[in-house]
Structures are given as C-alpha cells and as structure tokens.
Write a structure and sequence with these properties.
Helices cover 11% and strands 32% of the residues. By secondary structure, it is mainly beta. The radius of gyration is 28 Å and the shape is elongated. The relative contact order is 0.09.
C-alpha cells in the first residue's frame, strides 16, 4: 500500500511539475520582482532511506499536502531590491562592502543580497507589503515555510537535486571542489548574479547554491517526526530558524533538496540571503498570520541608527590597526595566557557584547590561532565522513580564505566530535595536529602543503583514548610534538621546514599536555608532562636534563605545566597538584609541595601572578593559592564557571593588570579581577553556546567557537 501511495505522489508531482512549467503564471510586482505561481499540491518531503548522505533531521520522508496556491520569487532577493526597500545594505560582495575587491568591475545590483539576518528578511517582507501599490493589490509578502521551499525546489522531482541525483559546478554556484556524483569543477569563491544557471521545472533559479535562504520555520532535529501532513508550519518555538539550499561556499551535498540547516535569527554572514513568497491578504491562514505577526524584529533591522553589531564591518587593515598582540599559538604569544592588547572597557555594555560576524563550523574542541589578520582552526566535517579540515578565515569578516582537508578515521576515539589542538603560526608557516595524529605544515597565507606526517602510520604511535590534544610547539628550527612514537618517542623533534625527524625522546606513555618552553638566561628548556613523569628536555637534542616521577590516574596529564619563580606546577583531576622546584641551572628537580585535597583541576589552564596561582578545582571552582607553599587562600564557590563533574573555563590576563577575561563552558565571557584578597566579577555576557574550545584574543576582538559556530566578538571597536 505504501508503495502505491509513494508512486502516486511521484506521478502527481511530475504532472504538477509539467503543469507549472507549461503555465508559470509569473507576476511582476511594483518593484520589478518576478514571482511564479505554484499550484496547491502534494509531494514527498525529506530524504528517503536509500539516500546514504541524508542526516537524521531529513527523515523520515513523508507526504505533505499544500492546500493553497502561492507565488514565490523566481530569484533570490537582489542587492538592488533589498536596498530599495530597506534603504541600506550590508552585502559583502558589493562596491561598498568589505568584499568589494572580489567583485571589482562587476555590476552587483543583480547579485543576491547577503549578510541578511532572519529579522532583516522579515522586515523586508513587511515593508514590501506596505508599499502602496502592493497594499492596493492586496498582496502579502513573507518568507516561505520549509515545506513550501522544498516543494518549490523539487518542482515535482524526488531526486537529490531538481537536476537529478548529481550536481556539477556548471549547474549551480557551490564549492565545485566537492561535487555530488560528478567531476570536480569550479569554486567561484563568491556569489554570482541571480539567474546565472538553468532554472528548475517551475522556472525558479538558484534553488541550489549561491546563498542560503531563510525559511519561516523554527529548526529542530526531529521536526519531521511530529510534522503535520497538511500545510505544516514547523515547531511553535525554538532558538534557530531553518535555512535551505546551500550557498557558494557549500559542498554539493549541503545543497540537496532535502538538506536542512539552521541559523540564529540574528546570525549573519556572507552567504545568508532569502527569497519571498506572496499570497493575497485574504487567503492567509489564521495560524500562519499569527506566527508571522508574532515575529519580533525589535533587535533589527539594521540600518540607520544601527547598533554596533550592525555597523559596517572594519576591513582587515582597520581591525589590525587597533593594535595589540595577535594570538599565534596555544595560550598566546608567550604561551602563558597573558594578552597585551588595546585597553578593554571598564565593563561590558549594558546590552552585552555584539558579534562582528559568525558562521557555521564543523565539530571539535580545537582552539583558535590569530595572526596577520587571519584566524586558523581545525574542524571535523559531517560529510564526507572521516574528514578533518584546517580552515583559514579573514579575521575582520569571517570569509574563508582557504581550507585544507584530509581523511581522518576516528576508530575507538572517545568524544569523537573533532580535532582538539590549537594551530601554531610561525612566520609564513602553519602547523596543525589532528585528533588521530595527522600533522601538517601549510603555508599560512595560501594553505599550500609544505609537508605532512601521519604519526600513527609512520611512527607507530597509539592514538590516546581522547585523541591527540597537545598543540605543536616551535623552537628555533624544530617543531615539537607530543607523539607517543614507538619505540621511545613520547616526544618528537622535527625539522620544521621539512618534517624530517631530528630526535625522539622518552618511553613514557602518551598524554595530552602541550609542552612548556622555559628559559634560563639564553638557554631554552622543554618541560614535558606525561602520565608517568614531569621532565625537562633540551629542545635541540631531546636529552633529559631532569626528571620527576608523577603517575596520574587514567593518563589524564592534560593542562600545560606553569613555571614561575623557580617552580614547575602540574595539576591533575585525581592526584591534585605537585609543585616541583628547579635549581638555577635547570638540571635538578625536587618536590616543593603537593596538595591532593584542595587543588584538583582537570582541563582548565592555571594562571599565576606574583606569589599566587589560580586554578579551577573540581569541587570548589576558582581557587587562589600560594605558589611557594600551596596554601589555599580562597575559592569562589563555583560562581565563575558552572559547577559540574568537569568544570571548565579559559582564563587570560589582560596585560600586567589584575584583570582577567574568562570564557566559561556555558559560553559566557566574563571580565573579572583576581587578587589574593578575593574574586571580583565585573561583567558577564553570553557570546556563544556551550563550549570547551579555547578562544583567541587579537586586535581588540575575542574569537570564540564551539561544535557548530565560530564568531568574532568586537570588544574594542575598530575605526570604520
């Protein structure tokens, strides 16, 4: 019976497609926008079980009936149309946009409007409906429901795309390096003029690629499991709205007819646009009207009198001109969690800090590096499966500058959502280490491969339970990695320009801590913490200068050691803290003190200042103690970061002051004062969702990320 129903849906769909194709019934409104009338009908929504690339949110495939005719724009809303209605435009690919160099000499009036927030798209529709000619004609403009969008996109088809089951770059504007069941093609790296490719059977252009298109529906993963069969409107509430169709930066897979994605209503980036639906005012259903009228655009639209979040973005040069240090490696320039930048405000603004830009990102805990007006991180892609990627983004706009992807199979990896380490930038070279041991050296400006090493395959390293987590460290002509090579290679020293092994050292088990560089006069030393020992190595040869036994439970040597006033301090979840005193020549080590009760931290990196240290204890939260003795001074009672089994926050000193900026695991950015006489919270505001990834501080901005979003938070405004 189900097969009969499915067949009838397919047949009906093709008949409907033909009818609409033969009689498009295109209406041109007072703005010159063309809209095609689509007849009420029935179609199969979502992805069937045979589509291997389908996500859980695309299933189950189900029959949907649309009972009302509607008109939909044959093109995405253009820059000219958006500006005419809204009286402003923030499009990146425009003569007055941040990406003007990429469209120099081109007439972008017919390019799609992008960097459009959901609230801006809603306000556009409302203003368009209020234009006198449109109002007189009784026309009501809105965004399409998700069902209407897919119905319009499919145009009677049941294949992956309205073109069929493949997509090539000659058919749509997407990242042609990653086609779908087709040959590799062109990656245009920007939007293209609307209508540059063949339309579907309904006469609609760019339903695949160019820009993502906002839909009316709230997004949930399981929306289809409770979806109405007739005129569905999606969930009644949520935090993100549905976007459809993919964009110029998307892989072909993400441009499929059934592919679903989501974005916050205030989210915006260079590939977000929309198209409109028009119906007669008298034919709008009560429930749809109710939902539409309930949409709050008071946080927008952007334009005249805009808030800081909607002002034109600074250029890369303007951003860097703010001054201050970059963030080229784990824990900043010096690797100690201190950032010397432009002076942060006394407190956060009353309405919080605003995002300069944000965009989707793949999974992972990888930290962010920032250098030369660019930011770098690693991600795990949903598709293709078993794929990691290094990405380089423009620091001022978030626009991708290059990416480098490679196969990385996560076999038996706990918390296998993505890479863990922070990239390291030295001059024109970038060093990255993936979760299962793929080490890359790339040109930082272009992403061109210089050399690579598969540590597991080439050195017989064993991937630790929670993946390779120690970031690469560069000293002189060497890059040092915590590798676990067999035999005797817990640490490897490699020629940083060729990747050739220079030395290997220690037969210790593999841990997770990034090695620390310390100095004695003009001499460097590498402090390495493994699950069995803390040792000092000559970074030029790997020769052991001193050793201290310290066995930790479950191999969780995680946070990088700190070194201050002759003391190396390591902090562990079960065994607590050990403070190791070094002689002046860094050749002998003795235990100064230990604390197994009050000072037990796991992932959070401790700070130090003067005679005191600060760490996040697993029971009591932020804790202050004497570095010389281990004496506990105070704790904050878990006020700074959420209390839990693994409390986590990243803490960074603002210069030489007693002020620190903290990103906690709830995604809140805190401005605090840390002193021996107590903890003082100055300001707190949410800047991203829950996160364990370490941020980067550079040029008056904080760059934050989690498993799905990366964002730039502008704290010290750059000149526009």
């Amino acid at each position: 019976m189900n097969h009969v129903i499915s067949l009838s849906v397919v047949v009906f769909g093709f008949l409907l497609s033909a009818a609409n194709a033969q009689s498009p019934r295109v209406v041109t409104n007072s703005l010159g926008m063309k809209l095609a009338r689509l007849s009420a009908g029935e179609f199969q929504m979502g992805a069937g079980p045979r589509l291997r690339d389908a996500g859980a949110d695309e299933q189950p495939a189900h029959t949907v009936r649309l009972t009302r005719d509607f008109h939909i724009g044959i093109h995405e809303v253009t820059q000219q149309e958006f500006r005419e209605v809204m009286k402003f435009s923030h499009s990146f690919y425009a003569p007055d946009g941040a990406g003007k160099a990429l469209v120099e000499g081109l007439d972008t009036k017919r390019f799609p409007a992008e960097q459009v927030r959901f609230v801006d798209a809603v306000e556009f529709c409302r203003k368009l409906s209020e234009l006198e000619p449109e109002k007189k004609a009784g026309r009501f403009y809105r965004l399409p429901t998700e069902a209407e969008w897919e119905y319009a996109c499919r145009a009677g088809t049941t294949t992956a795309f309205h073109f069929g089951d493949s997509l090539a770059s000659t058919q749509a504007n997407f990242n042609g390096k990653y086609p779908y069941r087709s040959r590799t093609g062109e990656f245009r790296a920007r939007t293209s003029r609307v209508g540059s490719f063949k339309p579907n059977a309904f006469g609609l252009y760019d339903m695949h690629g160019n820009v993502w298109e906002w839909c009316l529906d709230w997004y949930t993963v399981d929306a289809y499991r409770a979806a109405a069969e007739t005129d569905p409107l999606g969930p009644v509430n949520g935090t993100s709205r549905v976007i459809r169709g993919g964009g110029w930066y998307s892989d072909a897979r993400d441009c499929r007819s059934s592919f679903r994605y989501a974005e916050h209503p205030l989210g915006t980036y260079y590939v977000m646009g929309f198209r409109v639906v028009m119906t007669q005012q008298s034919k709008v259903s009560t429930e749809l009207r109710k939902r539409w009228d309930a949409i709050d655009t008071s946080s927008g639209p952007s334009g005249a009198g805009a808030t800081a979040s909607t002002k034109p973005r600074p250029t890369r040069e303007q951003l860097v001109a703010v001054g201050g240090e970059s963030w080229p490696r784990w824990r900043g320039v010096r690797g100690n969690g201190t950032w010397k930048g432009p002076r942060f405000p006394a407190r956060w603004p009353v309405d919080g800090l605003k995002s300069l830009w944000k965009r989707p990102i793949g999974g992972g805990y990888s930290g962010i590096a920032a250098a030369d007006g660019r930011i770098f991180t690693l991600e795990k892609l949903k598709t293709p499966e078993n794929t990691e990627q290094v990405v380089c983004l423009d620091a001022a706009s978030g626009v991708p500058l290059w990416s480098h992807r490679y196969t990385a199979a996560y076999k038996g990896l706990s918390y296998g959502n993505g890479p863990r380490t922070t990239p390291t930038v030295v001059g024109d070279l970038l060093y990255t280490l993936g979760a299962v041991g793929h080490l890359y050296c790339l040109e930082s400006r272009t992403g061109k491969l210089v050399w690579s090493r598969d540590l597991v395959k080439e050195t017989k390293s064993t991937t630790p339970l929670w993946g390779f987590s120690a970031s690469p460290v560069v000293i002189g002509d060497l890059v040092i990695v915590h590798a676990g090579a067999t035999p005797g290679g817990s640490f490897l020293g490699l020629d940083r320009r060729t990747g050739k092994e220079v030395w290997r050292a220690l037969g210790d088990p593999l841990g997770y801590a990034t090695p620390l560089i310390i100095q004695n006069g003009n001499r460097n030393q590498l402090v390495c913490w493994t699950p069995s020992h803390v040792r000092g190595l000559d970074p030029a040869t790997g020769k052991v200068a001193w050793s201290h036994e310290y066995k930790v439970h479950n191999g969780v040597s995680i946070s990088m050691p700190i070194f201050h006033r002759g003391i190396v301090l390591v902090s562990n979840y079960w065994e607590g803290v050990q403070a190791i005193r070094l002689t002046d020549n860094l050749t002998k080590a003795t235990l100064a003190w230990e604390d197994r009760r009050n000072l037990r931290s796991l992932m959070s990196q401790p700070l130090y200042r003067g005679a005191h240290g600060y760490l996040i204890d697993k029971r009591h939260g932020l804790t202050c103690f004497e570095l010389a003795t281990g004496k506990k001074i105070w704790d904050d009672g878990n006020r700074m970061t959420p209390k839990g089994r693994n409390p986590q926050a990243t803490m960074v000193w603002l210069g030489e002051s007693d002020r620190a900026v903290v990103l906690n695991s709830d995604g809140e950015l805190l401005l605090v004062r840390l002193q021996p006489d107590g903890y003082q919270e100055i300001s707190r505001t949410r800047v991203i969702g829950p996160t364990w990834a370490h941020p980067a501080y550079a040029w008056g901005c904080v760059y934050v990320r989690n498993d799905d979003t990366i964002s730039c938070i502008e704290v010290v405004p750059a000149p526009r």
